[in-house]
Amino acid sequence: MQFFNVVLPSESPLNQIAAGLGPNDLPYSLPIHPNLVHLTIGLFVIAIAFDFAGAFYPLEKRIFRFLALPVTRPGLHDVGWYNLLACAVISFFTVTAGFYEMLTAVPLAGVKSTFGLESFVTMTWHGVGGVLILLVIVLMTIWRGYQRFVWRKDMGRQVQWPYLFAGVVMMGVLGLHGTLGAQLAAEFGVHITADQLLAAGADLKEALP
Q1: How far apart, in whole angstroms, are the C-alpha atoms of residue 148 and residue 157?
Q2: Which positions make up the signal peptide (predicted)?
Q3: What region does 110 belong to: left with phi over 0, alpha with psi -120 to 50, or beta?
Q4: Cut 0.90: pTM above it
């Protein structure tokens, strides 16, 4: 009887790339995920804010005229739509970068967050939450598209009130989710070069340029 030879890797894939990682546990100097997160949040907030402005335009138009601002209701809704569309596209890269950087993360040991959570639990909630937020943003973009091109294409107010309410709720969720991410960096030292060097016992004056 002939058996297949099974060759097991001598080390995990993460250990194989460990030599190429810097003191921030990344192969590049600055984390990408936090920058994309702020772009995602900014685009979403602008999208909802301008759709709110478009929804209340009949109450605001006198102010715009007094200030001599050439603002139109369709223009406000255009900003809302295109920012949300850009947010949906960018968020795929945000989540992808987040999962990659989470795989190489080395949190500081013996630390609990302000919420009383350990690093693994915080990362789990942040990772799962990121995927769910991406799904909601995509669904809201589809919802927004149907309002723009089908349901309300001939109406002045291009968005429904439930959509705006969902946007406000999502902004709160983004704030909470962002707090978890901030705790990973500020409290657990994830991908923070100085924190990792101090944890390793290095002298920052010598280790940092």
Answers
A1: 10
A2: none
A3: left
A4: no
